[in-house]
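ok so for the tutorial part 2 we go from a plain amino acid sequence to predicted structure tokens. step 1 is just haveing the sequence, like this:
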Amino acid sequence: MDDKRTDEENSKRFRNRKMKFVLRRKKHFSQSGFLAELVSSKYRDEPFKIHSYLVKINANFTRAEHYHKSKKEWITPLFGKALLKMKNIKTKRRKKYLLDARNREQKIIYIPPYWAHSIKAVNSDSGILVFSLTPENKQDTIPYKI
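step 2 — the prediction. this is what the tokens look like for a chain of 146 residues:
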């Protein structure tokens, strides 16, 4: 529906809407940290056409441990250090990335479909930002330990 509108039409529509100054999102806590959705097309947060969330990982805990059949994700560190492990469940190819928010270069890692991934906070709490084009779909999230 919005995809068929021009940028100008979308901008006009956004300007004519009552602006929300605060977006409220629930935090989902677990022993390993928390996940909080940020802006998302799921909530009709115009003008955003992405889904994003913040993940806090407690020291030495691991999160994710799953893969997606169709969802594509991009992740980047916000604070602390985290070890990202990835495995292609079809070819068994593996990759590892140490994400350190203090590095002079900001790494943004692409996670394609069928790549299982887990992320572990190294020594202290860690935070990552995750972006995707689609909101979370439980049927597309398959548990998988690497």
